[in-house]
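Q: Focus on the shape:
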Amino acid sequence: MNKIYAKNLNKHFGETIVFQGFVEKIRDLQYVQFLVLKDGTGKVQLTIEKNEETKALQEVVANLTLESTVKVTGKLLESPSVKLNGMEIIPEEIIVTSTSLPELPFDNKSKDNSLRETRLDYRFIDLRREENNLLFNCQTVLEQGFREYWTKNQYTEIHTPKIAAGAAESGAEVFKIDYFGKEACLSQSPQFYKQMAMASGFDKVFEMGPVFRAENSHTSYHATEIHMADAEIAWVDGVEDVMEEEENWIKYGIDKMWEAYGEEIEKAFKVQKVDTSITFPRITFAEAKQILKDKYHYMGEKEDDFERKEEMLLCKYAKEMYNCDFVFVTKFPFSARPFYHMVGEDGLTKSYDLLFRGIEITTGAQREHRHDILRKQIIEKGVDPESLAFYLDFFKYGCPPHGGFGVGVARIMMQLFHIDNIREATFIYRGPTRLNP
């Protein structure tokens, strides 16, 4: 395709071009008509002086509706007096390629002018806003950066099943489905299969794909269908290896995204780049609880985990003490962790949460790879080991020490752009009460 996009118009001054886009604004004045057209990369003004020669164009514009699509042939002029990018198209022909109904379901010029649920009902219109287009372009580059880091560092990409015989995490709720007369479920984590890859001799693996959580949660940071970025690494000496790898990976992706879109991000979202030169601080779970008690005089009801307010306070602490938006919290009690997390001699897990601007974005760990100990931990969690026989088989014939992590892409985008609800950071959101569009 040789389509000319708005972002590249300044390369075609003085030329007769063809431009296609949505109609964003129409101003029909006494002596002149103005149109503002938009595509996914920007906007441009059309100017039509009213005279005998332009009567056909005037009639087209007079009958246009906002959000219709048009194909325009005309001369692109550099016009410093035009506020919109200092240019305008003087059209010779306007072809209406699709017509929008005159009344839109909501005012799509600003998200603040409409209810979120209405905008989600008509997400295809809501996504036409300039900042939304930018958001998902940024997500594309962020994921590209993540993938580039992995491939540069000799990771192997895997694609794990999304139909599973059972849950990958004890206590997790799953969506049950009928599988040719047998009960199965949608996978809520690729965890078991990442570990199978370790037992298969794959040194480093990654996957980017959907997972499904049947949690009846209506918070601003949960969803029932999540796009996850997962990694697992063999031959680790400890959980520190996993944390160091995740930190380098996140910084790489953020740097790539800001390199591509930093100026536009700061203009559209009024946010500054995360300082990727600072090493993420590391504190233990016990230290974190003490900080919450001594510095902020707050203790949540959970003795073995954090509440959201505690996560927010710990991020505040990391920002004040280390000027860092991220903080690793390590050594969680086994009672708060899955059976496959390794337990150290101190009785605490070799695991961590990575908190970012007030919310947990990752749970990572060194995994238990020794069959006898893993089986014992499964029993301690009240799970019948026979129900996990296929999983335990992975560890009967040798498996290297390994660890890994997973990150929800929408959640990290939400925090990077200071978006207050995951629904706004997800292309199409799925939650307990939303199955459409």
